[in-house]
């Protein structure tokens, strides 16, 4: 077996796909934002976006899994090479800018694991150097460590993906079993009263009415994102490539089930008003509050003393920190590798200069990987070591990528419709008469998300934010077109 491919069992494929898309944080934040009211909106998000998109991605991997370009190949085969490059560049740019913040966020769960609280924002210093500078330096060192590991090939990447995925599955199992145990010991009584009206009305005053519910629907759609990223690795799983489309469908079912069950079972341990009345709770830490509370409540139900219940709460809290740390590492390795692989290996032969596209013995364009690491470090430096103006610049870049990250989903759905009109496929999931519905639902849900993303800051008179959201895709598209014209003139090859 070549070193560029890794033979993964079907169960491992399902685990990697499911835990790459599923987010324990999003599940917890859904309960924080809407309580039980999140459940019908997650179901709607699954119906109008995730189910049809999973079917689309499954068909693409089943028919075009032999190509290493992933998303690039899907769009290139269906529309054009130029559209494929523009789409993949938007996809890649958004993830690269997001990676800079992920490399800095990874220290939060590590701090919680080590100290039981987030100390990353503390105004401390060591050797008269502010802590924020040490965090920046540590993040940059971690960048190059991760890039080195990526350069060792997909076998190394898959091991970290499996580790992070296994730990996420373990954390979900611990939370679910603990909540069920609480239900049993409390004779079926939920900490958050379970009523039919709770599915229709959120206790959160910020999520009321049509506008509030619409904003949560967009949150739900976002929680189901990322399937295209892991699906772009299909060519690296050896002979099991044929099982990848089915693994996507099985994983999609698990993702939907775990989201809905997880939100539902939080009500067994967490009374919404009691937990979230604390003004220190936010989207960034709601999960940690929920897990500490779960451990504390379980300790009390099992007859532990107050001190013992607090210790069990700390155990749950630090377990969450451990799991999230490794989950971040696995996620970082996935999104630092898959989009770059697609844009480097998906393009025609000789598109990029030889030094940039040349693969090492592990099948990785290592110079491109380390070049990406330098870019990420520069972005981290903008945030950590520069002036407030530079930080504003990075924040503006992040805003510019919010819509850019959604557009590839839209183009993939359009490409699928065109692909089914043009090609004869060996692997079919959607009957021809329903192809338009599948593609249309994804397009409508994404356009709804994009429209809301731009409209919301306008309502709040944040006109600069709305403008950046709008011009972001335009700027990245112009850069992509410039790169395509410059490098595309090097070859006339039309390979996908």
UniProtKB/TrEMBL annotation:
Keyword Transport: yes
A molecular-function term among this protein's GO annotations: transmembrane transporter activity
Keyword annotations: Cell membrane, Membrane, Transmembrane, Transmembrane helix, Transport
Protein location: Cell membrane
GO cellular component: plasma membrane
Membrane topology type: Multi-pass membrane protein
InterPro entries, per database record: AA/rel_permease1, APC_superfamily
Record field: transmembrane: 12-33, 39-57, 89-112, 132-150, 162-184, 210-234, 246-266, 323-340, 368-391, 437-455, 467-487
NCBIfam families: PRK15238.1
Database matches in PANTHER family: AMINO ACID TRANSPORTER-RELATED, GLUTAMATE_GAMMA-AMINOBUTYRATE ANTIPORTER-RELATED
Name under which the protein is recorded: Amino acid transport protein
Protein species of origin: Agrilactobacillus composti DSM 18527 = JCM 14202
